[in-house]
Amino acid sequence: MLEICTLGTGGTLPLADRALSSLYVRENGQGFLIDCGEGTQVGIRKLGWGFKCLDGLAMTHFHGDHCTGLPGLLLSLEKAGREETFHIWGPQGLKRVVEGLCIIVPKLSFPVLLHELPAAGDTFEIIGLKVKAFPVDHGGIPCFGYRICLERAAAFDPEKAKALKVPLEDWRKLQDGESVRVGLKKVRPEDVTGKPRKGITVVFSTDTRPCETLRNNLPGADLVVLEGMYGEEEKRPQALKNHHMMMAEAAELAREAGAGALLLTHFSTSLEDPEACLPAARDIFEKTFAASDGLTVTLRYPKEEENAWTSLC
Ligand SMILES: [Zn+2]
Ligand SMILES: [Zn+2]
After folding, report:
1. Which residue in 17, 35, 55, 65 is the catalytic one?
2. How sure is the predictor about 59, in pLDDT bands with cuts at 50, 70 and 90?
3. CA torsion, points 274, 280, 286, 290, in degrees to nearest 10?
4. What's the CA-to-centroid distance between 61 and ligand 1, angstroms?
5. 4-49 pLDDT, tens per residue?
6. Which DSSP category does 222 fall into?
7. Ligand lying closest to the C-alpha of residue 22
8. Cα separations (Å) of 163 from 188, 194, 196, 211, 248?
9. Are 91 and 144 in contact (CB under 8 A)?
10. How many angstroms separate the alpha carbon of residue 20 from the centre of ligand 1?
11. Among residues 81, 259, 287, 300, which one has the fewest Cβ atoms lying within 10 Å of its Cβ?
């Protein structure tokens, strides 16, 4: 099971009920964040998932609405008693930006390890999740989308265990990942498992025009969280000029990719009621939803050949 929470759904500037960009991802009691806009630590307090279990942060890019919450977040982590290393990933320039933001928090009780990602992106692991950073088109500013995968181990196959004459009392060991001996033969856990099973995939990408790298990284996703900066058609010139995306464009991408569901976020301050623009987006891709601050979504393992079940649908 994978859980996400859109802590902040505002773009550029906050509104009274809309903090700036941040997503909390939680799996098996551990968490990490994507983006840390102003108000992130307030959102985490309201949510109640805690600071202590947060192991890292991946930043999309360094516009203020995505990173100015960092000093406060680090102070909250310290107050929560953190001693373990906290990891931060982001585009080139990460070191300079984090060092600048952290002038006001010079001493922390825990180490912060910075990982500047190459321009072409990279894959890393955090809290047992595989995360792929891929570059997107934000008008020449280094900016990443993130594809988050919770993989699922293949299931134990009792028929294979029987065929290899593994005694019943050793099945548990194999299920727990241990090898066992059957006479002179060694039986490994992978000898008694079935086909690989589909895990859960979530893609998060804001501050981009629709582009090839984004398109390439959407197929197979159970949930795509994309920016819906503008809803009304008359805002299209602004979307083009500022290198942002229309809700309709996000819906087209989700439809093309066959995504399980689309959750729109990163709304312009001019978009007072994102829900009002949903019908037009749903004409393109039916399973389109508008995020709000503090919205949580639970994704559970799918049955064969299906998308993961999400609490949105
Ligand atoms: Zn932004
Ligand atoms: Zn931006």
Report:
1. 65
2. very high
3. 0
4. 8
5. 999 999 999 999 999 999 999 999 999 999 999 999 999 999 999 9
6. S
7. 1
8. 14, 13, 20, 50, 54
9. yes
10. 8
11. 81
